[in-house]
Amino acid sequence: GELLMGNYVLTCCSTADMPREFFEKRHIPFVCFHFTMNGKNYLDDLGKSIPYDEFFKMIADGAMPVTSQVNVEEYNEFWEPFLKDGKDILHTCLSSGISGTYNSACAAAEECRQQYPDRKITVIDSLCASTGYGLLMELLADERDRGTEMEDLADFAETEKLTVNHWFFSSDLTSYLRGGRISRAAFVLGKAFKICPFLNVNDEGKLTPRAKIRTKRKAIEELVNRMEQNTINGTAYSGKCFICESACLDDAEMTRQLIEERFPNLKGKVKINSIGAV
Question: Is the pLDDT of residue 1 over 60?
C-alpha cells in the first residue's frame, strides 16, 4: 500500500502482537522475531506459520518454545528497501526490559546511516510489550496520519510510551515452574489455592510481579480495578483499551464486558487479540 507520509516510514517488530490486517491497514511494516519448537524453526509472523490455537496446544502438551530476537543483519535487510527509496525511518522496538533487540536495532541503524548518510533513522525503545506495544503503535499511526513530522513523532513516542499501562495475570503456573521461576512446592500450593500471579510492565519496561490473587474471577476484577486507578479521569477515561489473551477467549470476553460497563466513554470497542508466540 502507498505509505501515507511521503518522507518517512513508521516500523516496528512482530511482538506488537496485533493482527496482520492492522499493520497493513495502518501502513506499519514489521520485522519478525523467531522461535524454535519441537526442533523446528518458526517465524513469529502473527500466527501465519503456526496458528495460535495450535501453538498453545503444543505448549499444553509439553513443548518448550525458545525465542530469538531480530538481529542486526535482519534489521538491515528490513530497512534497506525504504532507505533505497529515499525514506527516513522511525522504528519502535519491543521493550529493552525483556529483550536485547533494541541494542541490535541501534547497531543496525548505525550501519545503515553509514551506508545512507542522507537518511535519518531513529530507534525508539517502546518499554512496551505485546498488545500494549500494539496500542502504542496505533497511537503513533494516528499521530503520523495527522501529518506529524518524524522528529515530532519521535518526541511524542518518548512521552506517550510511559503512559501505556500493561496489567496481566496467568491462571496456569506450569510455565513458571518449567522456566524455573517458581519452586515445585510453590507450584503445588499455587495450584491448590488457585493462585494467579498478577503482574505489570514497569517504567523500565520489565515484567514485575505485583500481587498473588486467589481465583481467576478475582484476578479479572482486579484488572478492571487497576485500570480505574491508573486511567486518566478514572471511569470517565475516553482513550483506547486492548486485551490480549493466550487460549482463554472466554476470560477475555468477560474482562471486555466488565471494562465496557465500567468505562462508558471508551474510544471504540475494546479489541481482543491473541498474545503472540514470542
Answer: no
